[in-house]
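chain below, 291 aa
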Amino acid sequence: MLKTFSTQHWNEHFPDSAQQQAIYSLENGQILYFPQLTFQLTPHEQIFLSPDYADPHTKNISYQASQGRLWGVRHLTDEQHVQLKEMMDRFSKYSLQLIKELLPRYSQQLTMGRTSFRPVQISGRKTSYRKDDKRLHVDAFPSSPNQGHRILRVFCNINPNGEDRVWRIGEPFEQVANKFLLQCSKPVPGIAAFLRLLKITKSYRTAYDHYMLQIHDRMKADDEYQKNVSQEEIHFPPHSSWIVQTDHVSHAAMRGQHVLEQTFYMPIKAMKDESQSPLRILERLLKQPLV
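prediction:
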């Protein structure tokens, strides 16, 4: 499940053999793991290792590098607001550098998404089942259709108290799809245009997005599935990092606090083997194009 790399530097050059191993592992549903790759905070950034600065109405503190926008925060002075933006901007740049060095095939076609900081302990979070990341799921977003693009994420555990980030990893995506597609309804004709017109979705919800969102919701809603499906617990200790395609890997975050995450979106044409993408798997199972 984990493909381990020994680097300690975000800008380390990887030989071609390592790059090929990384591509193969990611596209086959594995997690790239960097046990010695940490993100160092400056002395004045240590103060942000507290849930007190996170808006309790949002899951994460978020930053959009392209807009220089920070949200999901509270109780920050103007100076602290700038300092937190600088911290998250630095992590976004480090993450992109790592992708460029390890996954150059992908890097030219990536779109940088949101940077997130998760300073709140996840194990005690109360929320609806759809938003509960402690339940196994593959990523799909109601208001942000990704239209078949891959979701590539870089994580780093910056917990200062020795606490691991603990995940559960479930069965391969094709097995997930085979279980839940039979329960999924077909898209209602015209609904995607209606949702876009009302600005309920930020872009057009394709048939792919429709099925992925239903799979996401039905996975989380099924208590028996959550308990009984084949799964593995993985611990990511402090000062470690990992890369995963969260639209492909069935995952649940069970415990942990103080994690940074950078999201990237990637067209499937950047893949070495696009038949491994959720889009192509669903199209093959449903015997129809979905975008």
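The radius of gyration is 19 Å. The helical segments are 16-27, 78-102, 104-107, 173-180, 191-197, 207-221, 223-228, 278-286.
thats it, cya
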